[in-house]
Amino acid sequence: MRLILHIWRQKNAQQKGGMVRYEVANVSEDMSFLEVLDVLNEELIEGGQEPVAFDHDCREGICGMCGFMINGVAHGPLPGTTVCQLHMRHFRDGQELYLEPWRARAFPVVRDLVVNRGAFDRLIAAGGFISGSTGSAPDGNAILVPKENADRAMDAAACIGCGACVAMCPNASASLFLGAKIAHLGLLPQGQPERKQRVTAMVAQARREAFGSCTNIGECEAVCPKEIQLEVIARMNRDFLSAATTARGDSA
Ligand code: SF4
Ligand code: FES
Fold first, then answer.
1. pTM value?
2. Is the CB of 59 under 6 A from ligand 2?
3. pLDDT at 200
4. Which atom in ligand 2 lies closest to the alpha carbon of residue 58?
5. How far is the CA of 196 from the centre of ligand 1 (A)?
6. Distance between CA atoms of 230 and 22, rounded to whole angstroms?
């Protein structure tokens, strides 16, 4: 099959970018989207042109490095799928596609389809540590965790930090990402000692970054490749209110 790709090209954060049209022939329906970009880049390099910069690492949908907008949808049209796992059999021969980087003030463009997601790292750093006893590993059954909590914590822990939720949100809110991280630890016994400090610090850091506020639109949930549910935002808000209404934020 043959594809017509309009790709955002931008040399760096200072210079203006713009769409450039490319035709990629001999695309196999078994190729992933990133493999199509590999083919295009080989052709560009052979022709003495600059290859398209895009982020990637595992190409298995687990690391969170890849991601860009395809026709205005973060990670493209297939639900629950990262662009590295999005295969060309879901597109038509001759289809025209528009590829753009994540559009959010908190994620400045580095080059072409690559954005700086350091703001996510700073949110995680603000969350701090969890207290753990030193010594030998505790017995696996020593700390009981209700099955429902274990399941919900695992679901939240599936977040790979890709940033699609921010890119798709009209407010560029990081609430789904934040909620996933806060729910993941807040549902487990190990996350309890610092639970209130953690939510207070992470929400404060999100305010310092250029993320917007959540208005429950739900675009984040719709594009999340790990299908993180909006429920985690409700959990975060509940924890935040609880922390804010206790005197020092460190007692129930
Ligand atoms: S919540 Fe989903 S969309 Fe947002 S960073 Fe995590 S995996 Fe990506
Ligand atoms: S490259 Fe790792 S999730 Fe896509």
1. 0.94
2. yes
3. 96
4. 2
5. 22
6. 37
